[in-house]
Amino acid sequence: MTAFKNLPAPPAAEKRPVSDTRHGITRTDDYAWLRADNWQAMFKDPSILDPDIRAHLEAENGYMNAAMEDTKPLQKALFAEMRGRIKEDDSSVPMKDGPHAYGTSFVTGGEQPRYFRIPRDGDVKDETIRTILLDGDKEAAGKAYFRLAGLDHCTDHSRGIWGYDDKGSEFFTLRVRDLSSLEDLSDVIENTGGGGVWAPDGKSFFYSALDENHRPSKVFHHILGTPQSEDRLVYEEADAGFFMGVGGSLLDDFIYIDIHDHETSEYRLLSTKDLNAEPKLVAVREEGIEYSLTEGGDVFYILTNDGGAKDFKIMETPVDKPGKENWREVVPHKPGTLIISHMAYARHLLWLERKDGLPQIMIRDRRSGEEHAIAFDEEAYSLGLSGAAEYDTDVIRFSYSSMTTPSQLYDYNMVTRERTLLKTQEVPSGHNPDDYVTRRVFAPAWDGEKVPVTLLYRKDMPLDGSAPCLLYGYGAYGITIPAGFNTNCLSLADRGFVYAIAHIRGGKDKGFAWYEDGKMDKKTNTFKDFIAAADYLNQQKFTSYANIIAEGGSAGGMLMGAVANMAPEKFAGLIAAVPFVDVLNTMLDDTLPLTPPEWPEWGNPIESREEYEQIAAYSPYDNVGAKPYPPILALGGLTDPRVTYWEPAKWVAKLRDKTTGAAPILLKTNMDAGHGGASGRFQRLEEIAFEYAFAIKVAGKM
């Protein structure tokens, strides 16, 4: 590999074979020792990591640094460009709520947000009326990692709950701040999911607690001024296969307990009129049936796939009789038009839907039944619906962007249908949308399906196959990758790259069926779709196989591992961020945080031989073979509870042992962070600059 010269010998992980037999099938794992036996405790105190494991990870980091040493000037240049596109002293447009309007801001050079409020109709530019409620930079001082979980004020605006994680392990601590004195109360709540929901009187709140395996299994009620040990257990979820969250209604009438996995859901409601009551079940969980609800005064509006509504429909039911027997359809199921989310206000019901890969916002007058849409005309774009903080309103807020159009924030009057542009994303270093082209093309898949691919490139780029391409993919959990504005990828486009997003099966880009066709026994469609996107871009001369660098993170990192095994010759390089590559071993380990809730997505290889064999057939770690792999960059986080650090570490060790090629296999482990990488906004840019530098080096464009 000409881009990587004179490298030292890479680390060679010691082989310590461990055999495991399931369903009469025996596998041997040479690198199982890289999984720390004390991982639960280590996530909270990384200093106790086994010295042999730490030594190996640090040796890998040393090799990675040697391989990337010559890119340091490029990394600095990329970082400067990306930072130059960020308005450093930026401020959000505050959201009105009661006598105040709440927002976030950054200061020049600041890594963390500040949470502020101003009088309801005050001028956000007037610093004299702005109260800084929480200064993230101040709270993060002296910490290698720090992530805020927001600030939620109570109904009378006197106090706020805020949360933080200072290890990257996603165990959040909650504090309560007096919003007049700006001092924290004595209350300290440990090991939470990151947020709380106030009772209407502002004297207590509800939160979800994480167990030792990082699962949100319990909801507690905390009364201010009392120790956490005295908090009342409101609900405990016995099934380790379900996630759980707690939320509240705009009208402060109910506390919602949301219990779900990837295909089944259940809600329990606690009336705020009796905080000590037992939560009441809305509709019992049924496998494969999802529902979510939002309050609309005397009714709940329920978004569900019940009754074969694969792309979802909206029902309504009386607040005092929310059971399924009382659900009545108000927005019917339309095959091919996926309803993503819904909201209700005093006079309007609204929902975000996606058809043919493009989103639109639908609004219905609750009195007349009249409907209209908010839509746009670009070939590919992204919409965000943030709604309103108050129930009795005719004005909602949404955002719009495309790959070439900076984000625009609007207030929208649902009665007059007037849009008010509140803010356009500033690019301080300059941005001319006319210099770029964004396109939506469709790559034919192996079975005749058409895979949407969003492209961004400079207008003057030759379409002769010579351009390098960063091809990004995810393809899991029904998550859709939006075709929104991303200032970072302009650094690649300006260097002659095509930036491409493959909207592959496993996401819901083309409706719920698109998701179903990329999970469980159909998981390989995800990988084949991504390869089909590469084939199309090569055939149409947007790029060529020799110039495609693929990128994906988390479940998208599994995608990288799978296509590396299936078609290594079609990629010049691969970037796998926190990659979920040891799929079979992880799905066999029911002590890991995400394993039981993930079985509906991937299969349960403990109970089912068939599902064991399905996963074993594609699991990237289990299918590494003797073949020439392209250059690979894998990135992990030591305290990552979602994709544990040992997955990329084991994968890289096996790749390096098996590859018949000379291309380098690199591992970078962030010893101070978890799944999300660095926590500060500029620290995160440094990581992106590093990844882009790898892509540019592989493409020979340094």
TrEMBL record:
SUPFAM superfamilies: alpha/beta-Hydrolases, Peptidase/esterase 'gauge' domain. InterPro entries: AB_hydrolase_fold, Pept_S9_AS, Pept_S9A_N, Peptidase_S9_cat, Peptidase_S9A, Serine_Peptidase_S9A. Residues 1-23 are annotated as: Disordered. It holds the Pfam family Peptidase_S9. This is Oligopeptidase B. Keywords: Hydrolase, Protease, Serine protease. The keyword Hydrolase applies. GO terms for molecular function: serine-type endopeptidase activity. The keyword Hydrolase applies. Residues 13-23 have a biased composition (Basic and acidic residues). Residues 10-424 form the Peptidase S9A N-terminal domain. Residues 485-700 form the Peptidase S9 prolyl oligopeptidase catalytic domain. Signal peptide: none annotated. Belongs to the peptidase S9A family. Its EC number is 3.4.21.83.
